[in-house]
Amino acid sequence: MKPAHTDLESTWSAPPRDPEQPRELRRIARLFRPYRGRLAVVALLVAASSLVSVATPFLLKEILDTALPQGRTGLLSLLALGMIAAAVVGGVFGVLQTLISTTVGQRVMHDLRTAVYGRLQQMSLAFFTRTRTGEVQSRIANDIGGMQATVTSTATSLVQNFTGVVATVIAMLALDWRLTLVSLLLLPVFVLISRKVGNERKKITTKRQKQMAAMAATVTESLSVSGILLGRTMGRSDSLTRSFADESEKLIDLEVKASMAGRWRMSTIGIVMAALPALLYWAAGLAQGLGGPAVSLGTLVAFVTLQQGLFRPTVSLLSTGVQIQTSLALFQRIFEYLDLPVDIREPAEPVRLEKVRGEVRFENVEFRYDAESEPILDAIDVTVPAGASLAVVGPTGSGKSTLSSLVPRLYDVTGGRVTIDGVDVRDLAFDTLADTVGVVSQETYLFHASVADNLRFAKPDATDEELYEAARAAQIHEHIASLPDGYDTVVGERGHRFSGGEKQRLAIARTILRDPPVLILDEATSALDTRTEGAVQEAIDALSANRTTITIAHRLSTIRSADEIVVLDGGRVAERGTHAALLGQNGRYAALVRRDAETAPGNEPGDSGEPSQDGKRLAPVA
Description:
Strand order of the largest sheet: 6-7-8-3-9-10
GO cellular component, one term: plasma membrane
Mean pLDDT: 76
Shape: elongated
Family: Belongs to the ABC transporter superfamily. Siderophore-Fe(3+) uptake transporter (SIUT) (TC 3.A.1.21) family.
CATH class of the domain at 360-599: Alpha Beta
Strand content: 5-15%
Distance between the termini: 53 Å
InterPro entries: AAA+_ATPase, ABC1_TM_dom, ABC1_TM_sf, ABC_transporter-like_ATP-bd, ABC_transporter-like_CS, P-loop_NTPase, Type_1_exporter
Keywords: ATP-binding, Cell inner membrane, Cell membrane, Membrane, Nucleotide-binding, Transmembrane, Transmembrane helix, Transport
CATH architecture of the domain at 360-599: 3-Layer(aba) Sandwich
Number of strands: 10
Subcellular location: Cell inner membrane
Number of helices: 21
C-alpha cells in the first residue's frame, strides 16, 4: 500500500507552548542520556573528591587539638602528610572529572548542532524563502555556542557542588550542630535571590539572542559579494555601516544588562557569606560566655574551614541555577528548530527505481502555499514521454518555476500527483529521486572551493578524466585548463571569479557528471547575452541528449525544437502544442514570440568575457 499524502503543504510558525510537553529541564537531561555511563564515572570521582576535601578540616582539628598541644611530632607529621595527600588526590580527581565532563559536554554540543542542521536539511524550500540566512546561522553558531559553558560543565558542577554541600553540612553537624544552624540560617534567602536573578537573566538573554541573530543576518546579507556590490554601486556603504552600528548599539545595552542583571543581589550573598566566620566566632564566644559548652580551638578553626568550604559550592550551586535559567532561553530557541514540522518526508517504505526510463506525468496537479491562499497551479495535466522534451512558457508569476520544483520535491503538490515512470515522486526514496532528477537553474550556486571540488559535489568519487569529459561536454574544459591553477582554481564566493556564462557551464558540467535521466532547466540562459548564450546552449544540448527534459523558458528562441510547449497563464494550461502549431493558433504563445523578438537584439546584459575581480579575463568570447 502506498503511503498516504496530505493535501496541503504545511507552513511553519513558532510552535505554541504545549502544556503536555516535557519541561525544558527534562528535555535537556535527555540530551545527556547516551553518555550516562561516563557521567556515572564523573559522579564517582566527584563524590570521592568531596569526601577527600571534607577530611582536611578534621585532620586540621587533630593537629590543633592533639598533635601540637601534646608535642606528638610523629602524629603531626602523619596528619600533615595526610593533608598534602588529600590535596594531591583531590587535584587528580578534579582533572579527570573535568576531562570526562568536558568530553561529554562537547559530544552533546555536537549532537545538538548535527540535529539542528539535519532538521534544516529536511525542510522544504518554502521555509528558506521565509527565513533570513543569518537567522539560521545564528541559531547554529551563536545559540548553541552560547550554551557551551552550561552543557560542558553544568552536569559536573551540579553533582560536584551538591555532593560537596551535603558532605560539608554532615561534617559541620558532626563538629557542632549549633554553629551549623547559624551557618545555614540565611541559605533559603540566598536560594530565593538566585531564582529571581535567574528569571531576570533568562528574559534578557532571549532578547540578546534575537538581537545577535538580527545582526548576524545583516552581516551575512551586506558583507556577501552581492551585498558589497549592491551597497557600493548604490552608494549605500555609509548607510549600511550606520545601520550595522545601530544594531550593534542595541546589543551593547543588552550585553550590559545581561552582565549586571542581579549583580548587586549576588554580591550581597558573597558579602554575607564572607562575613559568616566573624558571626561564628561571635556565636562561639557568646555561647561560652552564657555558660554553654566550650568550643575547642581546633573545632572552631575546623568548623570555619568547613564553612568557608561550604561557601564555594553553595555560591556555585546558586550560580549554576542562574546559568541554567539563562541557558533555558537558548535551549528554547534551539528546540524551536528541532520541533519544526518536516513537511517533505521520505516514506516509511520508499520505492527505489532500478532502471529509470524517465517518463514524467503531472496528473491534475494543484499547488498552493497554504490552505487560505489562491492556487499557484491548478488542474495541470501534462505528460512528458521518456526521452522527450517539454518547454514551459508564460508570463511572470504564471507558475512555471513552481511547476518544475515539484518534480525534484522542492515542494510537494497540494492536489493531484507528479509521477516518474508511474511512481509518485512522494513515494520515491530521496537518493533515488536525487539520482533521477537533475536541475540547472538561472541562479548558479558554486561553493568557495576549487573547480574540481565543485564538480565532484555531484559525484565525490569521480576521476579526473570524468571531470574533463564533463567539462568538455559543457564547453568549459579549455577555459579551465588555461587558468594558472587549472581545475585547482578556487572559484571564489558564490563563484564570483567566473562570469555568468562560465558559472552556468560549470553547473551544467556538474549535472553531466551526475548523469540524471530527467533534467530540469529553469531559465538557465535568461541572464546571458546572445553570444554567451550560444555556448551555454551548446552545453545544454549536450546535456539534454537522450534525457527527459523540462525547460522553463525565458527566451523562446531556445525552445523551438521542443517536442511539446505548454503555455501557463494564471497557474493553468492556456495552450499546448509544438512551436509551429502554437504559432498557427495566433494566441498567447504567438504573442509571447512577437514580444521576445522585439526585445531580443542587443538588449540583454553583457557577459562576453568581462574581467574578473583580479583584472584577469576569465571568460573567453563564446
